[in-house]
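Private note to self, pasted from the team thread so I don't lose it. Backbone tokens:
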């Protein structure tokens, strides 16, 4: 948030300040008397897009510290809300701050209860802010905000009293090891030293401070006030440590000023902590403002990403065009060199495309042509595993799709064909576009002992099964070694040397699809 509206509320009036780019500028003040809220309403016109932070520097602020059982989660929050309602029923501006846990015993939670006990001093101004739809970020207490002004050494002090002079009076906040426990705003004409002694006596009477203990006092005073230090012996149990407001402002990286109010407002504007007192529904305009800023930020990021993507695409297009031009120049150079080399060569027999196609066809025929070497190798392996089979005749041919396979009559040697009946051969016969199927007609005989018909059948079947195990190969028995049909008359005589004779021969038709 670069621009903020700071509202300093006292019991009599409210003063407006603006914070922008690390600079705090004073604005008008409006009294709580008649006419002040209306003038404040008129002045707020046009501040609907600026978040407001309200610093309530009031006398009617109460602090209590309690030890509560350590209950985490929602149950602990509900327990603290009940204790707050029991302590202050008339005000909605109350809060419970868990400051740690006890080191001994059952380790209870140390809880500081704080409340603005007179809401009538705040509600009229909040109604004006809500009517004008000014996004109110929160209500803040100078006592709870003053912890940011303590140095490292002061934060380790077991008992410390921070004293500062404001327009509304003298603010005194009591700290125990850097944690606020009590604060009071004295509206009197007495000096800060006198009020500090009164506060020490109150702390000793309330058993917050040992009666004879020395109370460390850190005073934030202007240079003119530091020139007249407190008289020695006026308060022997107060150990004064004076810090100029200019030095405190320099530690917070703020502009030098002689007003403690400006110092607290600058710390509030720079740190912008969570609200010290809950606002409830009165904070809805601030929630809407945060949502709107988030949408703007996400839109800006998305627009930046789109611009980067567009820029990357434009650069890519430019580079692609440049590369395309380089490739075109290189292509023209290759074409010129090719034409130059071709001009010195004799005229070609045919076009280059036709010659390339012829080479591709020749390679396809060499790779997929119907050569019998593969099927012959398969037959040789099967014959080696069947030594009782002897090959007597072999006929091989390639079959094109749509052409009926060969039959026994078509493969009988000496059979003549009529030239007028020969059809044009298909390109599949030479392996274009894929290898054709091959067919083999095989005649063999079985070498067995005399009259061993069972061994003849077993040997033939084993040989046929060996061939059928080859992938893509189909085996068909065309002719058995002898006729075993029941209606055929047996011829021959058992026990003679020519008992089997020609009947030991068989014929197989083999089809193989590579």
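Design output:
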């Amino acid at each position: 948030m670069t621009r903020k509206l700071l509202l300093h509320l006292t019991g009599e009036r409210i003063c407006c300040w603006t914070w922008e780019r690390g600079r705090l500028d004073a604005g008008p003040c409006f009294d709580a008397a008649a006419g002040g809220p209306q003038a404040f309403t008129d002045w707020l016109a046009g501040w609907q897009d600026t978040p407001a932070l309200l610093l309530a520097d009031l006398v009617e602020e109460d602090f209590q510290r309690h030890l509560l059982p350590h209950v985490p989660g929602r149950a602990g929050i509900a327990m603290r809300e009940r204790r707050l309602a029991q302590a202050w029923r008339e005000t909605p501006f109350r809060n419970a701050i868990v400051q740690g846990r006890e080191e001994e015993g059952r380790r209870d939670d140390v809880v500081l209860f704080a409340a603005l006990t007179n809401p009538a001093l705040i509600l009229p101004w909040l109604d004006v802010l809500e009517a004008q739809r000014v996004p109110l970020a929160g209500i803040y207490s100078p006592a709870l905000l003053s912890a940011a002004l303590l140095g490292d050494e002061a934060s380790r002090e077991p008992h410390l009293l921070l004293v500062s002079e404001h327009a509304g009076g003298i603010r005194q906040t009591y700290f125990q090891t850097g944690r606020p426990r009590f604060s009071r705003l004295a509206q009197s004409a007495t000096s800060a030293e006198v009020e500090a002694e009164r506060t020490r006596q109150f702390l000793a009477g309330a058993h917050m401070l040992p009666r004879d203990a020395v109370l460390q006092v850190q005073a934030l005073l202007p240079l003119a006030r530091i020139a007249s230090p407190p008289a020695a012996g006026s308060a022997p149990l107060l150990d004064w440590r004076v810090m100029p407001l200019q030095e405190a402002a320099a530690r917070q990286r703020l502009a030098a000023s002689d007003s403690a109010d400006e110092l607290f407002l600058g710390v509030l504007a720079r740190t912008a902590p969570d609200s010290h007192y809950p606002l409830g529904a009165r904070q809805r305009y601030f929630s809407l403002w945060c949502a709107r800023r988030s949408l703007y930020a996400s839109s800006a990021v998305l627009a930046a990403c789109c611009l980067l993507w567009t820029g990357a695409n434009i650069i890519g297009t430019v580079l692609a065009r440049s590369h395309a031009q380089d490739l075109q120049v290189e292509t023209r150079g290759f074409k010129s060199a090719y034409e130059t080399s071709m001009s010195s060569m004799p005229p070609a027999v045919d076009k280059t495309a036709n010659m390339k196609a012829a080479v591709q066809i020749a390679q396809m025929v060499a790779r997929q042509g119907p050569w019998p070497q593969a099927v012959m190798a398969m037959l040789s392996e099967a014959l080696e595993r069947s030594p009782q089979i002897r090959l007597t005749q072999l006929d091989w041919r390639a079959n094109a799709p749509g052409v009926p396979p060969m039959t026994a009559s078509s493969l009988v040697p000496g059979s003549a064909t009529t030239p007028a009946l020969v059809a044009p051969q298909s390109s599949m016969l030479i392996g274009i576009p894929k290898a054709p199927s091959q067919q083999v007609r095989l005649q063999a005989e079985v070498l067995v002992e005399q009259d061993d018909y069972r061994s003849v059948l077993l040997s033939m079947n084993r040989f046929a099964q060996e061939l059928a195990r080859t992938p893509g190969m189909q085996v068909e028995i065309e002719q058995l070694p002898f006729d075993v049909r029941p209606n055929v008359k047996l011829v021959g005589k058992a026990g003679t040397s020519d008992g089997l004779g020609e009947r030991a021969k068989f014929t197989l038709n083999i089809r193989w699809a590579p």
